[in-house]
User: What shape does this take?
Amino acid sequence: LYHAIPELVNSFGFAVLTEDSIAHKMEPERPIRVGEIAVNNGFLGFTDKSVNPPGEIRCGDVKVSIKPLAIGGEDTPATAQTSALINGVSKIKLTGQGSPLADKGKLTAKGSLTSVSMPFFSPYTLHYTSYPIKRGNLTVNADVTITDTSKLKVDNHITIERLERGDYSPN
Assistant: This one.
């Protein structure tokens, strides 16, 4: 939301959610609580035309559940579960718990990305190194903890298997 729109909407007694946070220092008159936000069998597609050939990702069978989502009142932590199938073969799974909308937001999350086919990254490796990726698999496991708005702890485990590059191709 741009410029004074959040303040205008707040003046009518509504909370404003933006992509970064709740509108500055907005305290709702009554607590706001959403029982669950859910997506089942969703689809997400992305094309990056900044590289040639364009990088593409397709996420199918997207499932998202966030419950409860609360603003004001008791600091009720929300739980989130997300899963999807990337490019028809690779699984992504994210789980977490926290109160990201509280003043001193807290969040713990675990995520895994399994057996991503490395040729998916070829548009990028070709663009930056002049070599495509012929084959290989990527697996990522991550633990993220935000203890307050100023402390972030991340533990990543990245495995690349059977990586093979293709022939040189000048940009």
Notes: Residues 122-129 form the longest helix (8 residues). Strands lie at 32-34, 37-48, 55-67, 69-71, 78-86, 90-99, 106-117, 133-148, 151-165.
